[in-house]
Specification:
This protein is an alpha/beta fold and 376 residues long. It has one domain: UDP-N-acetylmuramoyl-L-alanine:D-glutamate ligase (3-Layer(aba) Sandwich). Helix content is 29%, strand content 21%. It is built from eleven helices and 15 strands. The strands form two sheets. The chain has a ten-stranded mixed β-sheet with strand order 6-7-5-1-10-11-12-13-14-15, with helices on both faces. A five-stranded mixed β-sheet has the order 3-9-8-2-4. The longest helix is centred in the last third of the chain and has 15 residues, at 337-351. The protein starts with 11 loop residues before the first strand and ends in a 5-residue tail after the last helix. 42% of the residues are buried.
């Protein structure tokens, strides 16, 4: 263990990112679907853009009707969303993390497939800190941003957003994201929990509600908090990346996501991101397929980590979340960047072996066992 010779200083983090439940729809063969569905393969499509992608005659209701005709098993649910995935994994490893975001009145409803009760119960059981405020959507304007200290807003008459995960028997998949009825549609009007940010050492931001994330990152930056930014590839725009990346200290992403950042700043080499801002100290370039990573730190030679062997490849869904969870979990506890990245890759390799994301997350004891290192 690289940290055995020095004192480790733990830090507390907020985790912000999309909170969702995954609805798993298993069908026989994507090739048996209407030909227009080829446009969906390997992509995540917002429900609001169904007709834009498939054609004006298509609604999401019609899509569900077609999928129902090809299903080979009943729909099941699992805990989902990148924010809670990372928070859950980091907490299992012993990190102090609080989840902030937007949920509905079903936050603790035990959907079929939820193996540990409702989502709230499940997260708390893992050690994630939850401080929610229950309210109706029309009361958002009554919350004072400066005095706001409840990171999770739970809205009445709203639900946790659903991500529809469609997969056939041959491993082909595509996704629909509910961007219409979920509680997250209220994010843009919601205040930043400034008092919560003040209590923590840093924030971890991943894919989620960008208008809210912009203000959250700006708040943390002005309070001189550490900012870890997991780029995420969902609906990213150049202006968003140009605004938030210069305020961050650590950037995580796969090759595609890092290329989006390079495109936003019109740079050719990944190291050019260090010239964007003196605050950026570390870049983690990850690859969930090979279970490898490259660490780039300011004024240091790049370091390559992995590959970590994957014993069985069942599903790659959420493997990047495992990398982020392992990295954050160990960084928050004072481990060095190499050890933290290695922990993330081990989580990634384990998630590969199961259906679901949090189902494959290792706890502290399990991860140290795979590291073949005594728990410290």
């Amino acid at each position: 263990m690289r940290n055995s010779g020095r004192l480790r200083i733990s830090r507390k983090f907020i985790v912000a990112g999309h909170i969702a439940k995954d609805a798993h729809i298993k069908i026989n063969d994507c090739n048996s679907l209407p030909r227009v569905f080829e446009r969906l393969l390997k992509n995540s499509t917002p429900i609001s853009k169904t007709s834009e992608v498939l054609g004006k005659d298509w609604t999401f209701s019609k899509v569900l009707t077609v999928l129902n005709e090809h299903m080979v098993s009943p729909v099941s649910h699992s805990y989902g969303g990148r924010g809670p995935n990372v928070a859950y994994g980091a907490a299992l490893l012993g990190a102090t993390v609080e989840l902030i975001g937007f949920v509905g009145e079903d936050f603790d409803k035990p959907y079929s497939g939820f193996y540990d009760g409702g989502y709230r119960t499940h997260l708390v059981n893992a050690g994630v800190i939850i401080n929610e405020l229950h309210l109706t959507p029309d009361k958002i304007h009554t919350i004072e941003e400066g005095g706001h200290d409840r990171g999770l807003l739970a809205f009445e008459n709203k639900e946790i957003p659903t991500i529809y995960c469609v997969k056939d028997l041959y491993g082909n998949d595509f996704y629909f994201i509910d961007d219409i009825t979920g509680a997250h549609v209220l994010a843009e009007a919601s205040p930043i929990p400034k008092k919560t940010v003040q209590r923590y050492d840093g924030i971890f931001i991943t894919s989620g509600e960008q208008p809210f994330n912009r203000r959250l990152i700006d708040c943390a930056y002005k309070l001189n908090k550490e900012i870890i930014f997991d780029i995420g590839a969902y609906d990213l725009k150049d202006d968003y990346l140009r605004e938030v990346i210069p305020k961050c200290n650590t950037i995580l992403g796969n090759q595609y996501e890092i290329n989006l950042a390079k495109q936003a700043f019109q740079i050719k080499r990944i190291e050019g991101l260090f010239d964007v801002s003196s605050d950026i100290t570390t870049i983690i370039l990850e690859d969930k397929i090979t279970c490898t990573a490259e660490i780039l730190e300011r004024n240091k030679a790049p370091t390559k980590i992995g590959p970590i062997k994957v014993k069985k490849r069942v599903s790659s869904v959420g493997c990047c979340d495992g990398i982020a969870a392992g990295y954050l979990g160990f960084q928050a506890q004072g481990y060095d960047t190499i050890t933290a990245t290695n922990a993330g890759l081990i989580q990634c390799a384990n998630i590969w072996q199961v259906e679901g994301v949090q189902e494959g997350m290792l706890n502290r004891q399990q991860l140290f066992h795979k590291m073949k290192t005594p728990i410290q």
